[in-house]
Inverse folding.
């Protein structure tokens, strides 16, 4: 039971970090492409206030990004590798199979533990790219979660 909770906690922290990173990048891109141009051409007097608002928002989001990055570094001390497979079950439903190789924090030795958790998922709740691959009947490759998260965390400032 503890291993499943540990895996769930790992997934939650990774999801939160990705969410904040992606949300912030979307907001910054929107600000730079639309809002900044709009205030400059329509209401130039508001531009300095808009920029100050973004500075204040950054003061709040920067610590969240740092915390997500630090949490991932801490988790990587224990997670050696985590992969995710999308499986079609015999009854036509879908599932994620998450396999994690880790060194449990409470372990007295450096013995590696392998856990596997399968989560049934309705088709409409699969990620858009996975559904597209299924519809196209393309091969769905195994996703190396740790590699993906490592790359995402490198992008976090």
């Amino acid at each position: 039971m503890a291993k499943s909770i540990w895996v769930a906690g790992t997934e939650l922290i990774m999801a939160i970090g990705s969410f904040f990173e992606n949300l912030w990048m979307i907001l910054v891109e929107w600000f730079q492409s639309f809002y900044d141009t709009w205030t400059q051409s329509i209401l130039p007097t508001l531009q300095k206030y808009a920029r100050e608002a973004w500075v204040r928002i950054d003061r709040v989001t920067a610590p969240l990004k740092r915390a997500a990055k630090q949490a991932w570094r801490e988790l990587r001390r224990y997670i050696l590798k985590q992969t995710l497979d999308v499986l079609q079950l015999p009854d036509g439903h879908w599932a994620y199979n998450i396999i994690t190789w880790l060194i449990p924090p409470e372990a007295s030795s450096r013995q590696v533990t392998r856990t596997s958790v399968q989560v049934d998922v309705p088709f409409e709740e699969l990620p858009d790219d996975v559904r597209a691959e299924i519809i196209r009947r393309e091969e769905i490759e195994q996703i190396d979660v740790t590699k993906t998260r490592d790359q995402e965390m490198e992008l976090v400032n």
Summary: The chain has a mean pLDDT of 76. Residues 37 and 148 are 34 Å apart (CA to CA). Residues 78-155 form one domain. DSSP finds four helices and four strands in the chain.
